[in-house]
């Protein structure tokens, strides 16, 4: 019996630019997520994967995807920074913002001076700066003025050495200044909590606001246990003899107030509690940049704000801390109280759409491309244009600051903005990596050793200058100085090193206060350095 011959099957697969783009994006994200002690390449992993793909397989880039990526990324940077960028100069200008300006000014002088002295190509020098600061906005800004191959070459060499320089500088500085930081921590007034039973008859039947004892000593009631039920206490809460009160304030003040109320007891507040916890996004423009004390959340809603998450960093807020647009407030109260607080902080009537409005997104993109396409003749300098990168940033800042222009909303849900920003950066990195992968490898020579050394200098000198001026001239505490430095360099992992010594919210508040401003200023700094180098004849 004869068997039928096997029929050969051939499988064809047609590659496309989009298949290559998103395959490299997937591989790059996986590589960037690999971390050692919390430090990794992050979104730059996509650039590395694309450069490998461009070198090994010679994939061709798609310029229009790179342009779209630039616009999406910088547009979202502007949208995120817009609500707090202009207000931050007024709110933190005297200390934190001034210190960031020192950081960036020292960086600018260092980069321009070293490039002019050593004769390093301007594109490579600006790429070294972007890599030493591990700043994607600085990289994109540099590529608008210099050859992409040079910028990417400098960025690729400097990035790992920039990470290493920042980590070593902060680690060594924190170790050397540990005693000074300990003295600063000891000098701060630490809040203390204790539980007392109300035994004094004279306070029975009085409202909290009618007991001057609390205001005189700046002590608050953070919880009240009555009839086996835990509740919050507002200014209108009526005290009853036998109440179990949890007091918070400075240790001596709590002890003074507690002794007049009754005796200290050991009571668990967690059991039988009616309280709930909820995360609320601050989207109401009327509460932005107002302090918790000014808003009176505890008094108005009987709810307590326990933590705030800002720029992906969580901290315990003080009464004098102001809320920023996009903050995630973690509050404790009854379900009804939290419902009312959520309407107050993030009611959709005051704020953004709960989803991305396509019409508004199209309007923002149209404005970005329109501003970028304007060419203004300037006498003596010739035609001037912001380009698509500058147009996207300006459009994002305008919509982010005003929140609404006409019927178009410029504040999208935070998660949606983050996704669009990461998508834009990935699209841009893939196309640039494919274009520069081959030239990067061919350009490697012994000069790369010098470039790596320059990258460390570009990172360390500005940090040292900012710390010396901030701490010794502006009298900013050590941990807050490092918080400003990490925010100015948009380097979040550095906070983990600082918080090993100072676990309070102070370095986090300093970081999150300057972070959105630094994102914009670093872009302007790159443009300023390029103009300075042109005037010096180095470009």
From TrEMBL:
The record, for SUPFAM superfamilies, names: TrkA C-terminal domain-like
Q: Which GO terms describe its molecular function?
A: monoatomic cation transmembrane transporter activity
Q: Which Gene3D superfamilies match?
A: Regulator of K+ conductance, C-terminal domain (3.30.70.1450)
Entry annotated with the keyword Coiled coil: no
Give residue ranges for domain RCK C-terminal: 179-259, 263-347
GO cellular component, as recorded: plasma membrane
Q: Which keywords does this Swiss-Prot/TrEMBL entry list? A: Cell membrane, Membrane, Transmembrane, Transmembrane helix, Transport
GO biological process assignments: potassium ion transport
Report the subcellular localization. Answer: Cell membrane
InterPro entries associated with the record = AAE_transporter, RCK_C, RCK_C_sf, YidE_YbjL
Q: Where are the transmembrane segments?
A: 12-31, 38-58, 64-89, 101-132, 152-177, 358-378, 384-403, 415-434, 449-469, 481-501, 513-536
One Pfam match: TrkA_C
Q: What is the topology of this protein in the membrane according to its UniProt annotation?
A: Multi-pass membrane protein
Family to which this protein belongs: Belongs to the AAE transporter (TC 2.A.81) family.
Know the name of this protein? Putative transport protein
Provenance organism: Thiohalospira halophila DSM 15071
């Amino acid at each position: 019996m004869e068997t039928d011959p096997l029929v050969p099957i051939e499988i064809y697969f047609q590659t496309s630019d989009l298949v290559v783009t998103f395959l490299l994006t997937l591989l790059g994200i996986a590589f960037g997520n690999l971390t050692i002690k919390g430090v990794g390449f992050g979104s730059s992993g996509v650039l590395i994967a694309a450069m490998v793909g461009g070198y090994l397989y010679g994939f061709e880039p798609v310029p229009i995807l790179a342009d779209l990526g630039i616009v999406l990324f910088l547009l979202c940077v502007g949208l995120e920074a817009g609500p707090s960028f202009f207000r931050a100069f007024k709110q933190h200008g005297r200390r934190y913002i001034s210190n960031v300006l020192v950081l960036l000014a020292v960086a600018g002088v260092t980069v321009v001076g070293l490039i002019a002295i050593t004769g390093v190509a301007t594109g490579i020098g600006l790429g070294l700066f972007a890599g030493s600061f591990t700043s994607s906005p600085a990289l994109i800004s540099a590529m608008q003025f210099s050859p992409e191959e040079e910028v990417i070459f400098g960025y690729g060499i400097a990035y790992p050495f920039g990470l290493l320089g920042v980590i070593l500088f902060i680690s060594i500085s924190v170790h050397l200044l540990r005693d000074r930081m300990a003295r600063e921590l000891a000098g701060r007034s630490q809040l203390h909590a204790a539980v007392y039973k109300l035994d004094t008859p004279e306070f029975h039947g009085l409202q909290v606001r009618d007991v001057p004892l609390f205001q005189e000593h700046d002590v608050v009631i953070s919880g009240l246990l009555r009839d086996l039920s835990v509740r919050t206490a507002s200014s209108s809460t009526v005290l009853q003899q036998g109440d179990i009160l949890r007091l918070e304030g400075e240790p001596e003040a709590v002890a003074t107030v507690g002794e007049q109320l009754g005796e200290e007891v050991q009571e668990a507040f967690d059991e039988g509690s009616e309280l709930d916890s909820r995360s609320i996004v601050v989207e109401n423009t009327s509460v932005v940049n107002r302090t918790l004390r000014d808003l009176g959340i505890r008094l108005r809603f009987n709810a307590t704000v326990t933590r705030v998450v800002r720029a992906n960093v969580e901290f315990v807020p003080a009464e004098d801390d102001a809320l920023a647009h996009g903050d995630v407030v973690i509050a404790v109260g009854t379900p009804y109280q939290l419902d009312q607080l959520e309407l107050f902080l993030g009611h959709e009537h005051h704020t953004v759409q709960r989803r991305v409005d396509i019409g508004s997104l199209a309007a923002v993109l149209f404005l970005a491309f329109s501003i970028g396409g304007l060419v203004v003749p300037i006498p003596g300098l010739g035609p001037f244009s912001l380009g698509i990168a500058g147009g996207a940033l300006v459009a994002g800042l305008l919509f982010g600051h005003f929140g609404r222009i006409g019927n178009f909303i410029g504040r999208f849900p935070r998660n949606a903005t983050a996704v669009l920003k990461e998508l834009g950066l990935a699209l841009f990195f893939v196309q640039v990596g494919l274009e520069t992968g081959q030239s990067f490898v061919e350009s490697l020579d012994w000069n790369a050793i010098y470039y790596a050394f320059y990258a460390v200098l570009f990172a360390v000198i500005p940090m040292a200058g900012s710390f010396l001026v901030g701490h010794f001239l502006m009298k900013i505490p050590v941990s807050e100085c490092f918080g400003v430095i990490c925010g100015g360099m948009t380097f979040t992992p550095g906070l983990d090193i600082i918080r090993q010594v100072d676990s309070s919210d102070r370095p986090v508040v300093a970081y999150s206060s300057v972070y959105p401003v630094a994102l914009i200023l670093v872009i302007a700094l790159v443009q300023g350095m390029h103009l300075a180098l042109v005037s010096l004849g180095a470009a």
